[in-house]
Amino acid sequence: MTAMFYFTKYAENKFDMLNKHKIYFTREQVEDAVGAPDKAGKKGKLLTAQKEDIKVIYKKEENILKIITFYPIK
After folding, report:
1. How far apart are CA 71 and CA 58, in angstroms?
2. What is the dihedral of CA 31, 68, 55, 63, to 10 degrees?
3. Going edge to edge, which strands form the sheet with 54-61?
4. Neighbours of 49 (CB within 10 A)
């Protein structure tokens, strides 16, 4: 069974926020980072996933992956 992705309102707004700074990510890139990360970890109760130049903070609730936020990394 595949997990479903859910973007919080904050995560949804993050796309526009980053676009204003000429940083563009797609939902697919965010989902791909969580689904097949180069590096995965934990930050308190939250999970982190990193792939190429993006880091995603998310939470796993049953079979839902709730995307809290994401940001570019160098």
Report:
1. 12
2. -40
3. 4-7, 64-72, 54-61, 46-51, 39-43
4. 24
CB 41 within 8 A of CB 34: no
pTM > 0.70: yes
Structurally, the chain folds into a number of domains equal to 1
- CATH number, domain with residue 9: 3.30.2310.20
DSSP string, 51-73: ETTEEEEEEEETTEEEEEEEEE-
- Give the domain range for residue 47: 4-72
| Residue among 30, 67, 66 at smallest CA distance from 50 | 30
pLDDT in single tens digits along all 74 residues of the chain? 578 999 999 999 999 999 999 999 999 999 999 999 999 999 999 999 999 999 999 999 999 999 999 999 98
